[in-house]
Amino acid sequence: MDAFTYQNGQLHAEGAPLAGIAAQFGTPCYVYSRASIEQQFRAWSAALAGQAHLLCFAVKANSNLAVLGLLAKLGAGFDIVSGGELARVLAAGGNPHKVVFSGVGKSVQEMQQALLAGVHCFNIESSAELLRLQQVASRLGIKAKVSFRVNPDVDAKTHPYIATGLKDNKFGIDIESAEALYQQAAELSHIELRGIDCHIGSQLTELAPFLHALSHLLDLQERLAASGIAIKHLNLGGGLGVRYRDETPPSPAEYVNAVRQMLKGRDLTLIFEPGRSVVANAGVLLTKVEHLKHSAHKNFAIVDAAMNDLIRPALYQAWMAIEPVSPRAGEKRCYDLVGPVCETGDFIGKQRELALAEGDLLAVRSAGAYGFSMSSNYNSRPRAAEVLVDGSKCHLVRRRETVDELFAGESLLPDEGG
Ligand SMILES: Cc1ncc(COP(=O)(O)O)c(C=O)c1O
Ligand SMILES: N[C@@H](CCCC[NH3+])C(=O)O
After folding, report:
1. Domain housing 346
2. Angle subtended at Cα 182 by Cα 207 and Cα 121, rounded to the nearest 5 degrees
3. ipTM (interface predicted TM)
4. Which residues are recorded as modified (N6-(pyridoxal phosphate)lysine) (predicted)?
5. How many other C-beta atoms lie within 10 A of the C-beta of residue 326?
6. Are 145 and 185 within one domain?
């Protein structure tokens, strides 16, 4: 399902015209479709029907409270990577017992917060982290449930900045040395071994790397079982890709079916941590053309959204579709769409054939994942508003930041006079 369609020549989010949203809430503005988020999450759940599982939405992909709240109501668990994300999950009504805590650098304070909240599992990425967790847990008198994130040295065939399953990446434990670590953990008083975890990268468009990694995990599970360590769950992380342009990623059902085939006969709970595949295509970034700038060899459309609002093009050279909200007749030109930020890398899209005039609205598609959640205040730009559309109703789920808020925590030096 595509929630963003032209109706009477106007781009809509479900039943709401994007031009109306821009008029009401201003631009730049993120717009999400409730139906689209729910449909994608349900596609994952349906694929796992009849299999013991936990679906933990990766909060980093889109951490707006309203989005987390919708998913919590559908029974989602959450994959978090910070104390801040845990606080968001709790504020959105998420169940802490369905939370898995990932990330290479958990602080003492964050471990404590997660233990007290009663999270389902810590995904541990080093022996140093294991020993720290043992200390914190024993101080609190709580047993920490743990899985080790192993690095299976599998090429995810994605952008190098978002590949995480190769030996050179900072993530996970070399799968060769994992067994020794499980043995060490089994001796610790406040650690309870639960699972094996991996996440080899994001925006994967083929099944083979996932299944290759899974085969390594199953080998490890067998070796551990032979040495008396029973594993209850396998966590395959996130990573399922989406279509930005012409990619043809597997559906959640195709992916999950292939995994279930390989699991046959084993009594294991499956955990997944999907982020992008749930929300990317459920969101757009709405932006307005401020100026057109033509020279002999280049046409620029300067829009009011910039790299601080959406960093994916600048950071990964990511291609995001850009569509006019009210397509106009007239000559198309080849434009680079750039933001107002003072960086040459500040672009939203390059070489796009569009007919444009000042004041036109554009929708940057597939912006529901790693859009607002990666935005910043660079150039002292307040962060965008976020709107969640439900049918023809538009809910402002985060108001635009104000300039005063940007420096509210700052202070001038004390007066040095007299
Ligand atoms: C540990 C972990 N789990 C889950 C995810 C979510 O990945 P994706 O958005 O590709 O599904 C990520 C991000 O890549 C991650 O680092
Ligand atoms: N932020 C990345 C995905 C990496 C997620 C972090 N594990 C993106 O926009 O594609």
Report:
1. 4-31+281-406
2. 65
3. 0.98
4. 60
5. 13
6. yes
CA-closest candidate to residue 201, choices 250, 159, 260:
159
Same domain, 243 and 332: no
Token pair 């169940």 is found at 95
Residues with pLDDT less than 70, the chain: 162-168, 418
| Continuous H helices in 148-297 | 178-186, 208-226, 252-263, 276-279
Q: Please indicate, yes or no, whether residues 393 and 315 belong to a single structural domain of this protein.
A: yes
Q: What is the distance between the alpha carbons of residues 377 and 406, in angstroms, rounded to a whole number?
A: 8
Please count the other Cβ atoms lying within 10 Å of the Cβ belonging to residue 228: 8
> Is 146 found in the same domain as 47?
yes
Q: SS3 of 120, please?
A: coil
151-206: per-residue pLDDT in tens? 988 887 777 776 666 666 777 898 888 999 999 999 999 999 999 999 999 999 99
Binding residues for substrate: 276, 312, 316, 343, 370
List Cα–Cα distances, 370 to 64, 280, 283, 310, in angstroms: 11, 8, 10, 8
> Burial, 305: exposed, middle or buried (Cβ in 10 Å; 0-12, 13-18, 19+)?
buried
Q: Given 231, 251, 279, which residue is the final one in a domain?
A: 279
Looking at 218, 253, 279, the residue that finishes a domain is 279
CA-nearest residue, atom 1 of ligand 2: 370
Distances (CA, A) of 149 to 108, 217, 379: 19, 10, 37
Q: pLDDT of 335-349, one tens digit each?
A: 999 999 999 999 999
The answer to whether 81 and 103 are in contact (CB under 8 A) is yes
Do residues 139 and 203 share a domain?
Answer: yes
Spatial contact of 335 and 373, defined as CB atoms under 8 Å apart = no
Closest alpha carbon to 144 in 115, 180, 108, 166: 115
Looking at the structure, do residues 291 and 326 belong to the same domain, yes or no?
yes
**Nearest residue to 61 via CA among 317, 371, 288, 340:** 371
In eight-state DSSP terms, residue 309 is T
Q: Which residues are catalytic?
A: 342
Q: How many structural domains compose the chain?
A: 2
Looking at the CA of residue 238, tell me the nearest atom of ligand 2.
7
Does residue 397 belong to any structural domain of this protein?
yes
Cα of 30 to ligand 1 centre, how many Å? 21
Ligand 1 probe mutation, 150, 273, 278, most atoms within 8 A of CB: 273
